[in-house]
Amino acid sequence: MYPALSVLRAIGSQAQQVLWVGGQSGMEADLVARQGIAFAGIPAAGVHGVGVRSLPGNLLQLSRGTLQARRILRSFQPDVILFTGGYVAVPMALAGRRCPILLYVPDIEPGLALKTLARFADTIALTTEDSRRYFNPRKHMVVTGYPVRPELENWTRAEGRSRLGLDSEGPVLLVFGGSKGARSINRALLAGLPRLLRQMQIIHISGELDWAEIQAAQAALEPELLSRYHAFPYLHEMGAALAAADLAVSRAGASTLGEYPLFGLPAILVPYPYAWRYQRVNAGYLQQRGAAVIMEDAELARQLCDTVEALMRQPDQLAAMRAATRSLSRPQAAAQIAGLVVGLAVQGKGKG
């Protein structure tokens, strides 16, 4: 969602009307409504990797979603369609293949839904050059970078530390498991929490699911350590945390390809082990360029504290990682993708 919202903000008043089409269930509709964007829901379900029992029902959902998408398109009559992936987009692509289409690929390696959407796309925007090899070379592809949320850019290191109540000096570790959290990362941190807090301040964004466990660990801390531990179930001012930190521990979702470079933030990346390999490919891209190190999820409990301590004790290595990370930043990505969207819309009108 965040890449699409960033592009929409960059388009601004150049778009007279915007309609966001997403899934009928989940939190997407509420988040879009908060941005003042009209929303329409359609039924959809994935077909890749599902069991034999689920496949017929999912295919039926796909068919229903395509019919609903056709009705939406007849009513709204868009000049251009922007896709950022996900199986919910497939019915809309099937229904809207005669409309100019721009596909943005957040992760380096696309999943099945993105590969399917690419067949209908007039232009494909890529986060990195490495993604080209996954698509038909005859397709029009543009490397734009990852469109980061504009509100992230408003934070400096000093402002971030002040906002979160951190001391202005001394190392800061950010531990982040995504909006839903990452239990293995949370528990590995809690196991070594007193040890790490004696050496650094910690920003811990745990997700809601483990929040009770985090609060219990927080309550057990000695007073002098408690002041160094800044835990949140969710943090709206994510830019403050990214700006304040010297090192991050997180999964390796697509946002790490854009948000960490924006702040030059080195990372220990822990690819999610129970899903398609896209996080591992993302993490490998950053590690190969000296911007991150990879840690296996199964090794967290044994290696996390030692790895964090080793990096924090080597300021020269952290500085080199910070420079390598910052060199990957493309701050104009949202504006560039917005330009591609507007250009396709103009071309579509010209053809009409």
In short, what is this structure?
With 352 residues, this protein is of the alpha/beta class. Helices cover 44% and strands 14% of the residues. It is elongated, with a radius of gyration of 21 Å.
Average per-residue pLDDT, rounded, comes to 91
Q: Oligomerization state of this entry?
A: single chain
Count every helix, treating DSSP H or I runs of 4 or more residues as helices.
16
Structural class: alpha/beta
How far apart the termini lie comes to 30 Å
Gyration radius, rounded? 21 Å
- How is the biggest beta sheet arranged? 6 strands, parallel
Helix content: 40-55%
Q: What characteristic shape results from the CA principal axes?
A: elongated
Strand content: 5-15%
Order of helices and strands: HEHEHEHEHEEHEHHEHHEHEHEHEHHH
Biggest sheet strand line-up: 9-8-7-10-11-12
Number of strands: 12
Q: Give unreliable regions as ranges.
A: 46-52
Structural features, described:
By secondary structure, the protein is an alpha/beta fold. The chain contains 16 helices and twelve strands. It has helices at residues 2-11, 28-34, 55-76, 89-95, 112-118, 157-163, 183-191, 193-197, 211-219, 223-226, 238-244, 259-263, 278-288, 300-312, 315-326, 333-351; strands at 19-23, 38-42, 81-83, 101-105, 123-126, 140-143, 172-176, 201-205, 229-232, 247-250, 267-269, 292-294. Strands 9-8-7-10-11-12 form a six-stranded parallel sheet, sandwiched between helices. Strands 3-4-5-6 form a four-stranded parallel sheet, sandwiched between helices. Strand 10 (247-250), helix 12 (259-263) and strand 11 form a beta-alpha-beta unit. Helix 1 (2-11) packs across helix 16 and helix 6 (157-163) crosses helix 11. The radius of gyration is 21 Å and the shape is elongated. The two termini are 30 Å apart.
